[in-house]
Write a structure and sequence with these properties.
By secondary structure, this protein is α+β, with helices and mostly antiparallel strands. The chain is built from six helices and four strands, in the order αααβαβαββα. It has a four-stranded mixed beta sheet with strand order 2-1-3-4.
Length: about 140
């Protein structure tokens, strides 16, 4: 769990250090703006922008019941973030599995990707799709509804 927060915390610490330097130089406005940028970057790279993750086994059970896709992701992955942002509000309909928090999820991703933990990996109807187009994922959601 702590591994997911390392990058966001480093961003906040670096932004704080740079802002402190700007304040010492007499630029509190620039310091505030810089710190805000670093805090926003930390938020975007944190697990906070993703819907609540569940375990791989629970996600696969729910997907079998409702037909919705399962997305395996990890914090800090720009492709996962891109998928999440491009799905918009429909991202809440997908079952999200954080592979850093769930060893079974990491194992499922490695099994689907020749031993690599390549994310996002989307499972639809039992078939894995590595880094699919967000429009395609959205289309799969409309089919499951």
């Amino acid at each position: 769990m702590t591994r997911a927060w390392i990058l966001p915390m480093l961003m906040v610490l670096c932004g704080s250090a740079l802002a402190a330097g700007l304040i010492a130089d007499g630029s509190p406005g620039a310091a505030a703006a810089l710190l805000l940028v670093f805090v926003l970057l930390a938020g975007v790279n944190s697990p906070l922008i993703f819907p609540r993750s569940i375990g791989a086994l629970e996600a696969q059970r729910r997907s079998a019941a409702d037909g919705r896709p399962v997305v395996f992701w990890r914090p800090g992955c720009k492709y996962c973030m891109q998928l999440r942002i491009r799905l918009g509000r429909s991202a809440r309909q997908v079952h999200w599995v954080d592979i850093w928090r769930d060893p079974a999820g990491a194992a499922a991703v490695r099994a689907a990707n020749d031993g690599n933990e390549t994310v996002p990996t989307v499972i639809v109807a039992g078939q894995p799709h590595t880094n699919p187009d967000p429009a395609w994922v959205r289309k799969q959601l409309s089919r499951s509804a």
